[in-house]
User: What shape does this take?
Amino acid sequence: MGLFEFFTQHRQEVLDLTAEHLVLVGAAILCAVLIGLPLGVLTTRWRWLGRPVLGGANVMQTIPSLALLGFLLPVPWVGERADRLAIVALTMYALLPILRNTAAGINGVDPSVVEAGRAMGMTPRQILFQVQLPLAMGVILAGVRVATVICVGTATIAAAVGAGGLGEFIFRGVAMVNNQLILAGAIPAAALALLADLLLGRVEKFFQPGV
Assistant: This one.
């Protein structure tokens, strides 16, 4: 049976696992943005915070995915459900690009623009939300784009703890030494990563100054 026939015959299973994959990635990216964006802003306000925060995020990126799942498994509440475990792990992997790009985007805003805002009587909060964040949005979205692509690829490992996703086909294929099953998981995952990169790239361009 060819790969196309496999997709045709197992269409519903492929769709279900793709939906699970998207839910894991979406939840992880949402959590990463909610954590990484404020932390990135704080590192530009409190400079001393930058090194430990970015250093911690760097360390998390270096931990192999299976090892990270193993470290998180005994953690209360997190390790009680496979989906929570996978989402927390994916969130940790997605943090670094968002943190780094948020800080870089805000720090990259022309100081004269910030000074002009102060001269107009704007408060620090107004300068942040009305000047710095809008101007840094293109750089921040570039970080979200990178984090999303990372998450789509890494989410295949979620199947190792029973969290579902397209990794189910890959692990099943490895166990059965079946290349067709491996490709049935790998090809849709790669397609999702390319699609996410393309769509977020367009959104990123929309927010770039002068584009």
In short: The radius of gyration is 20 Å. The chain has nine helices and no strands. The chain has a mean pLDDT of 89. The CA atoms of residues 170 and 182 lie 4 Å apart.
